[in-house]
Amino acid sequence: MESTGVVPSPRVAVVVFLLKGNKVLLGRRLTPVGRHTFALPGGHLEFGESFEECAAREVKEETGLDISKIEYLTVTNNVYSKNPSNPLHIVAVFMRAIQAEPTQVAQNLEPEKCESWDWYDWKNLPRPLFGPLQAMADNGFNPFPADHEND
Ligand code: 8DG
Ligand code: MG
What is the CATH number of the domain that holds 91? Predict the structure, then answer.
């Protein structure tokens, strides 16, 4: 990589498993990282925000949905090295939540970034999944509460 004198630094993202019954909300990405793969709503933490505030803001901005019962799940460290001229290192904080108002319908409010939003059964996820999400699913990660009936 040619040195520009600028030292790249990791960014923090907050990503949300929005849960409804046995389903999660996914949309096909239209942005360069993970283009055409199915991913969760989420985005970058803004200065001074809590994880919960960021989760609620990103879901609202991307889908129009209000969320509640926002809980921390896990964190992953992702170094995307495919494009060395644009190094990308993202610490992704995964939260879960449910709809605050179940009658609200997900809208595609950032159509330049996402094809559409839909609910998918966690046991029958669409493909291709966004890499980091596929890795979590492959590792047996389950975003549902322990007492949730998910068979
Ligand atoms: P912003 O700059 O508008 O705040 O953010 P964005 O444009 O909405 O960011 P994003 O790419 O949707 O999300 C930020 C990063 O979070 C993404 O580049 C990689 C990481 N990430 C994962 N898994 C997932 C996922 O399932 N969905 C989303 N949206 N991001 C994810 O590691
Ligand atoms: Mg996003």
Answer: 3.90.79.10
